[in-house]
């Protein structure tokens, strides 16, 4: 068991109170670390440290920031085993998923290293003779980041790397279920040479101190990943103070299998899309629509493959399913499955538990009176539905409050492109899983799945502010309006 402290101004800082909480290993709910329960005072100390560091280092040359990020990528690559161990033991990540996170983090840092030299504006023709007109992108100041438990490394790196790359300071409030990843990130940025105060961590329950962080008058931008309910609340706080913000929220992502699809390819993609990290992924394909002529064939093949999804040693590469993160979330998964059973759904596979692990579960005959029909389960549970036409499945896929990711399997490119154009989702994949990300793409959703986009290009919108500058020649007259 390890004891953590807040990371403020480049040093471990004790909490303003003696209150600590337990960070549990979800395999057996044993205590993994003891974590300070931060207060509004702790948040204020972190934001003030970030603000002062920003004022001191805001004019740091792009080449220096590039060097920090390049070093961070090398350190991350060196320490992948350390980060992977934390992901396995703290959040119950199978080693294959932990490997995905660490590889993505290295790649994102390398991509972000190129950002400092791309924070540029443009010259603009002026209507006034003799006036030189240009636009600049300048850092916003202090960026607040709130990360989820399921991909704490990916989100922690995404948020902090872009804040640092664009000349800002950063304050991180990690999920109370994954604080150790944040502690390791603090070490990474320190070793990479990032000046004290540009990266800070405050631990605690988001329900208790989240508003203190997002509503702090010296926080200029917010980047949040979590539930739609909390995201809407953060949007209200940001709107009241006119802060920039990006929200990456929940999903109920559809995966469509047309009659002309490669069934084996679709089955494998569906397995990955919903059962990777035991379904605790916002892009999870929790709704699978299969064209009626192949519905029975797909259902049989998918159910058989699902039964082979392995629960076991998290450090064994073939293990696909690990523990559900908390008792609260386990109860949610149980409730969704039990409610569907009680109301007449067929369980084609799964629905059973081994300790804190739920087996990969496939439902058929789900109707709109069942909780699982519309709500995000955030577990290894998906439902199969038949459809008869492309227009019908587009309507079904869009009939949700969410709009994060969607995919379609078909050999008909016209059909695929029509679906891509009409799908109400921020991301659409053709003949590929719903679950995918790259550092430089505009990642995010619409409707209740989010607001704004993440990525090395998209993040410039919240991490920088446009400024228009004009210069009138001294002998050219005042001009203007």
From TrEMBL:
Keywords: Aromatic hydrocarbons catabolism, NAD, Oxidoreductase. Residues 16-469 form the Aldehyde dehydrogenase domain. It holds the Pfam family Aldedh. Its EC number is 1.2.1.65. One of its GO terms (molecular function) is salicylaldehyde dehydrogenase (NAD+) activity. The active site is at 248. Pathway: Aromatic compound metabolism; naphthalene degradation. Gene3D superfamilies: Aldehyde Dehydrogenase, Chain A, domain 1, Aldehyde Dehydrogenase, Chain A, domain 2. It comes from the Bacteria. It catalyses: salicylaldehyde + NAD(+) + H2O = salicylate + NADH + 2 H(+). SUPFAM superfamilies: ALDH-like. PANTHER family: BENZALDEHYDE DEHYDROGENASE YFMT. Belongs to the aldehyde dehydrogenase family. This is Salicylaldehyde dehydrogenase. It comes from Aurantiacibacter atlanticus. The lineage of its organism: Bacteria, Pseudomonadati, Pseudomonadota, Alphaproteobacteria, Sphingomonadales.
């Amino acid at each position: 068991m390890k004891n953590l402290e807040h990371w403020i101004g480049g040093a471990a800082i004790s909490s303003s109170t003696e209150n600590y909480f337990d960070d549990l290993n979800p395999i057996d709910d044993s205590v993994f670390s003891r974590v300070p329960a931060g207060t509004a005072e702790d948040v204020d100390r972190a934001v003030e440290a970030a603000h002062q560091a920003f004022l001191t280092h805001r004019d740091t040359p792009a080449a220096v920031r590039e060097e920090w990020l390049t070093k961070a990528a090398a350190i991350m690559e060196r320490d992948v085993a350390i980060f992977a161990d934390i992901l396995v033991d703290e959040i119950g990540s199978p080693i294959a998923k932990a490997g995905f996170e660490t590889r993505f983090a290295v790649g994102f840092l390398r991509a972000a290293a190129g950002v400092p030299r791309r924070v540029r504006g443009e010259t603009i023709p002026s209507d006034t003779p003799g006036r030189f007109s240009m636009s600049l992108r300048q850092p916003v100041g202090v960026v607040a980041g709130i990360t989820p438990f399921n991909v704490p490394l990916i989100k922690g790196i995404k948020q902090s790397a872009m804040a640092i790359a664009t000349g800002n300071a950063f304050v991180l409030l990690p999920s109370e279920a994954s604080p150790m990843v944040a502690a390791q990130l603090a070490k990474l940025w320190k070793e990479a040479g990032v000046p004290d105060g540009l990266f800070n961590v405050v631990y605690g329950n988001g329900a208790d101190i989240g508003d203190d962080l997002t509503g702090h008058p010296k926080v200029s931008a917010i980047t949040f990943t979590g539930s739609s309910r909390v995201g809407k609340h953060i949007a209200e706080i940001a709107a009241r103070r006119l802060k920039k913000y990006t929200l990456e929220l929940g999903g109920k992502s559809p995966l469509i299998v047309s009659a002309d699809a490669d069934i084996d390819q679709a089955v494998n993609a569906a397995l990955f899309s919903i059962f990777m990290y035991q379904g605790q992924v916002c892009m999870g394909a929790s709704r699978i629509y299969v064209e009626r002529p192949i519905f029975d064939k797909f259902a049989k093949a998918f159910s058989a493959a699902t039964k082979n999804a392995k629960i076991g040693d998290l450090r064994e590469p073939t293990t696909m399913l690990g523990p559900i993160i908390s008792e609260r979330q386990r109860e949610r998964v149980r409730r969704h499955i039990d409610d569907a059973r009680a109301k007449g759904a067929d369980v084609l596979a799964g629905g059973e538990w081994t300790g804190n692990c739920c087996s990969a579960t496939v439902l058929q005959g789900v109707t709109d009176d069942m909780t699982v029909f519309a709500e995000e389960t955030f577990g290894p549970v998906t439902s199969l539905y038949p459809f008869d036409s492309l227009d019908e499945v587009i309507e079904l896929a869009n009939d949700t409050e969410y709009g994060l990711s969607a995919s379609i399997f078909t050999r008909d490119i016209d059909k695929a492109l029509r679906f891509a154009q009409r799908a109400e989702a921020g991301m659409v994949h053709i003949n590929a899983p719903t679950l995918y990300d790259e550092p430089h793409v505009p990642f995010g959703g619409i409707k209740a799945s989010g607001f704004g986009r993440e990525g090395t290009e998209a993040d410039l919108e919240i991490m920088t502010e446009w400024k228009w500058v004009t210069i009138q020649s001294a002998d050219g007259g005042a001009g203007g309006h």
